[in-house]
Amino acid sequence: MNRMNIEGKVALVTGAGHVKGIGYAIAHELLRKNAKCVALLDINDLPGHEARDELRKQFSKAVILYIHCDVSSKSSLEGAFEKVKSHFGCIDIVCNNAAVPNETDWESTVNVNLIGTIRGTYLALDHMGVSRGGGGGVVINTSSCLGIITRPYSPVYGATKHGIVAFTRSIADNNTFKKNKVRVSAICPAKMDRPMRNVGSTMIPDFEELRKYADSLSSTPKSHITDTVVKLIENTEYNGTICVVLPDDPMKIIEPQTLTLV
Ligand SMILES: NC(=O)C1=CN([C@@H]2O[C@H](COP(=O)(O)OP(=O)(O)OC[C@H]3O[C@@H](n4cnc5c(N)ncnc54)[C@H](O)[C@@H]3O)[C@@H](O)[C@H]2O)C=CC1
Ligand SMILES: CCCCCC(=O)/C=C/C=C\C/C=C\C/C=C\CCCC(=O)O
């Protein structure tokens, strides 16, 4: 197996501004594997600064930045990538992880989850692609098990997560690696031990039904997610790989649907 070493690498993680979140857990794991520089991007600055300070305490040799960034804003995301590049000199790993579960203001859910992930992936190609002067790298997009199956309670959230899976597969299949030496894969976590921020009845009209459904499920430990992210980064055979992360199976690879068109 060819390996990419995380040691000495520069990473950017969106939606990483809360110590209890998945983005933070990914950033923490990359630092544990001796990443040299990690940028945490988020819109919530107070917990974002706390997250940065906590990581600085634990990883004193690494350079850790918090950057205020709204992934749904083109200029904000472009500015954050520029800042990371100018500060660290390059970018090697991009994790597009920010998302909201808002079915009421559903346009914001499309803008943050799907458009933010697509733009984050294209910016990663701009900054890391060898055809554009970069050194290659890896993009990991955070989808969800609701990007593979459907449930009636959160149709727009589910649509954005299905969109992330489809986009990730297609872009990886589109000679992206041959042209740019950038691999793109996605993780699809099942229910986590901690719900997303602000998930509740103001965002999800059918929240009580969703809660009942959630209560019937086991929780997935965050360590499953971070282990899978590390494998997708380190093993260079993974590209366009879609992994569901389940409580009893941390890396269930989902093959694409087959349909012969005539
Ligand atoms: N918690 C769960 O049960 C599951 C979560 N996921 C996915 O995992 C990812 C992380 O979720 P969690 O850590 O659980 O939730 P979270 O709500 O703690 O994390 C999302 C982060 O994104 C940030 N964010 C929201 N809008 C943003 C914007 N416009 N620009 C930049 N940052 C923004 C939030 O401030 C927050 O820190 C999300 O993509 C979510 O859809 C997937 C499956 C299960
Ligand atoms: C749409 C809401 C967030 C979905 C998170 C996700 O991507 C996948 C979750 C999979 C199954 C569980 C479904 C929803 C869990 C959401 C909220 C539960 C809140 C109940 C609670 O724990 O208090």
From TrEMBL:
<comment type="similarity">
    <text>Belongs to the short-chain dehydrogenases/reductases (SDR) family.</text>
</comment>
<dbReference type="InterPro" id="IPR020904">
    <property type="entry name" value="Sc_DH/Rdtase_CS"/>
</dbReference>
<protein>
    <recommendedName>
        <fullName>15-hydroxyprostaglandin dehydrogenase [NAD(+)]</fullName>
        <ecNumber>1.1.1.141</ecNumber>
        <ecNumber>1.1.1.232</ecNumber>
    </recommendedName>
</protein>
<dbReference type="InterPro" id="IPR002347">
    <property type="entry name" value="SDR_fam"/>
</dbReference>
<comment type="function">
    <text>Catalyzes the NAD-dependent dehydrogenation (oxidation) of a broad array of hydroxylated polyunsaturated fatty acids (mainly eicosanoids and docosanoids, including prostaglandins, lipoxins and resolvins), yielding their corresponding keto (oxo) metabolites. Decreases the levels of the pro-proliferative prostaglandins such as prostaglandin E2 (whose activity is increased in cancer because of an increase in the expression of cyclooxygenase 2) and generates oxo-fatty acid products that can profoundly influence cell function by abrogating pro-inflammatory cytokine expression.</text>
</comment>
<keyword id="KW-0560">Oxidoreductase</keyword>
<dbReference type="InterPro" id="IPR036291">
    <property type="entry name" value="NAD(P)-bd_dom_sf"/>
</dbReference>
<dbReference type="Pfam" id="PF00106">
    <property type="entry name" value="adh_short"/>
</dbReference>
